[in-house]
Amino acid sequence: MYKEVDTLIEKMQAALVKEKEGNPQFYAMQLITEAEEKIIRTVSDTWRLPEEYLYFLKRYVPEKVSWCTDEYISLHIYGAKDILPGQSGYNYNHVTDEAITEWPTNYLVIASDEGDPYCIDLSRGDTTIYTAKHGMGYWDFSVAYNNLVDFLHSVLRPRTLGSARTMRMNLTITTKY
User: Fold this and answer.
1) What average pLDDT score do residues 136-162 get?
2) How far apart are CA 90 and CA 76, in angstroms?
3) What are the residues whose beta carbons fall under 8 Å from the beta carbon of 163, sequence distance 6 or more?
4) Does pTM top 0.85 for this prediction?
5) Residue 45: predicted pLDDT
6) Residue 100: which of 91, 110, 87, 88 has the closest Cα?
7) Helix, coil or strand: residue 81
């Protein structure tokens, strides 16, 4: 159904395996697995997600993978079990147990790079990805990618063609949230 998403997840897995070959201490996370049904049900009950994104969440199951490229310093793409805690500090303050009223109510944070959120607007029903800089005192969102597939492609290639920098990936295993 979403063959392009499957292909990209396979490429992400291959990039992790390649990194492990060059660095034996690197732990390659298996990304092509099925998320626990209970976690998917919790996410689905909490938000009405675009079908393509829900499909992705069922198959992208990291503990915590940080993608570092020319474009990203340390991009964390949330899996299903990370999506709820990933909202903290954006639309929800877990310290005061209150909603953050300045946050657009329909925006779901699906990834972050050094605090800069990458979101989908749940009111649209598509997977257009929006981003904004954090720490500005306000949120000024703009379209980062036209869809989820374009966003996933971005973690596999540096933005600057011909750059001497190569893609690096850091992996941190987290067992508790």
Assistant:
1) 84
2) 15
3) 70
4) no
5) 95
6) 91
7) helix
